[in-house]
Amino acid sequence: MKHWWHGLIGAVLLPLGLWWPGAARATQTILFNFGPLEFTIAVASLEKYAATGRIAPDFRDVASRLTPEQLADLRVLLTQRADLDPVTVAQFLYSPQGEVMLRQLGELIQTRQRVSGFYALRSALILAAADQQTGLTALNVLDKFPVDGLRINSALAFQMVNLVSRQIEATERAIAIVEAAANGVNEDDLDLPYDLRIAGPLAHQRRTLRWRDQARQRNLVVDLYLPEENLRGDAPVLVISHGLGSNRQTFAYLAEHLVSYGFAVVVPEHPGSNADQLIALATGLAREITPPQELIDRPLDIRFLLDQLEREYGDRLNLQRVGVIGQSFGAYTALALAGATINTDSLAQACPDALFALNLSLVLQCAALKIIDIPPLKDERVQAVMAINPLTSKIFGPAQLAQIEIPVMLVAGSADTVTPALEEQIIPFTALRASDRYLVLLQRGTHFSTLGATDDDADLPPAVLGPDPAIAQAYTRSLSLAFFGAYIANQPDYRNYLGPRYLGYITDPLMPITVVRQLDAAQLRRR
User: Is residue 230 located within the same domain as residue 132?
Assistant: First the structure.
């Protein structure tokens, strides 16, 4: 179920690829402009090209402006099918978040009369998903477009092309800067006797706890992993906060690894943004992908469960030095607990004109503007955080991230299309002022590379998961153990495992790993 959100977003953005070659249809034709010239392409010509690779005369002028790689990508895009239930698609498209995306797509994909394609796109996407024979493909969305003629807003299309091109170039330059910073680090010849990817020696027990926060009328289900040895009232505690649409299983592999080294690991399930919430949306029992209030409730969930643990397990756990690991929405949660405050001014400036299609995380970030009362979210018991694929750029901003005083590790994937690495992790890292800070870059890592298997997983292409999730999960086991071993368990020798020597030992050429302690913000600004 952790991939349901990504698959659905991909299906909604499916029409976005249609302007890339200038293609398409609206019942019969698509119109678009190159400068003063207007072109018309029949959908039948695109169908022929997708099926045979042959370029019809009305497609020839546009095709000549594309590279062979773009033409090959177009052929795949036109027929690539997303197997999603039509009710699920409809429920999403009628949610506030779905309507935001449709409004933006409607400015790009219009009717022949230059009217927003908002309603026509919603209808076409639902009808295509309901077509059992062909299913939800770009060609079928064009075929189901309910008005005669579809027009591509060429000015906006070229603006987005330029933005994407600049973003790709800037990201590549930033990655080169990160790698150069890592390569410039010298290290003594240290003795590193352990491979932190391998499980530790301790057995453990897992307890499922059910608590109710009466003040917020909110039920929490929590898995507590306890090592069976060394519980003398001082076991170090780590909390793992899952991402949107995930559940307690998603990082079970990580909890089991950390508990084998003596950590007590707490894995809550956030009821307003877990897998059940998305099932409720798909079945009509929920109105939104996640309520805006979840931006507040998630950190408060962790504050509540730490209070409960103090009452029920205070004689076994050290709850004055807690580490938090979060992924995506959970990474936001970790940074909020660490002391970063929500920047409503930044959100108010960015959100009306933000192109969500280029940064999907803005859908969640901008939802914060709907929250009336934002209480303090920092928890002094949290003494170190590891934020994997966090969303940070608008909801926090530089001044707010600079408020974090505890050790922090940001983890980025260079192929992350949900929380893009440059905007959401690399540039934000330069705003951190904590003396102990780390930026981890997984080359070719995606937004979902570190997530473990669950019972509800769907088969997704490698482009979504990255080269091999097992590689990213091994990195996550090693990095989290070293980071929290040093800063929560107070064993300084673990810091040596965060340096170039050990990372060079474990790096995999399919997904190379780079870790840096500082970056030149001025270099990144010259992008």
Answer: no
- The answer to which of 198-207, 229-238, 424-433, 489-498 has the lowest mean pLDDT is 229-238
In a domain, 159, yes or no: no
β-bridge mates for residue 212, sequence order: 219
Distances (CA, A) of 2 to 243, 396, 523: 8, 25, 36
Query: pLDDT-based confidence at 430, cuts 50/70/90?
Result: very high
- Residues of the domain holding 196: 175-525
Measured between its terminal Cα atoms, the distance across the chain in Å is 37
193 alpha carbon, distance to own chain's centre? 34
pLDDT tens, 372-423? 899 999 999 999 999 999 999 999 989 999 999 999 999 999 999 889 999 9
Same-domain check for residues 183 and 144: no
In contact, 294 and 270? CB cutoff 8 Å: yes
Could you tell me which residue, 459 or 110, shows the higher pLDDT? Answer: 110
Top-confidence range, 105-119, 186-200, 264-278, 356-370: 264-278
Based on the domain organization, do 136 and 241 belong to the same domain? no
Range among 88-92, 108-112, 231-235, 428-432 rated most confident = 428-432
Torsion sign across C-alpha atoms 519, 520, 524, 525 = positive
Would residue 160 count as lying in a domain? no
DSSP 46-84: HHHHHHH----HHHHHHHTTS-HHHHHHHHHHHH--B--
Cα–chain-centroid distance for residue 407?
22
At 218, which CATH number?
A: 3.40.50.1820
Q: How many domains does the chain have?
A: 2
- Give the Cβ contact number of residue 175 at 10 Å: 18
Q: Which of 121, 152, 183 is the last residue of a domain?
A: 152
Q: Quote helix, strand, coil % in the chain, to nearest 5.
A: 45, 15, 35
Domain-embedded: residue 165: no
Query: Could you give the CA distance from residue 391 to residue 106 in angstroms, rounded to a whole number?
Result: 25
* 157 part of a folded domain: no
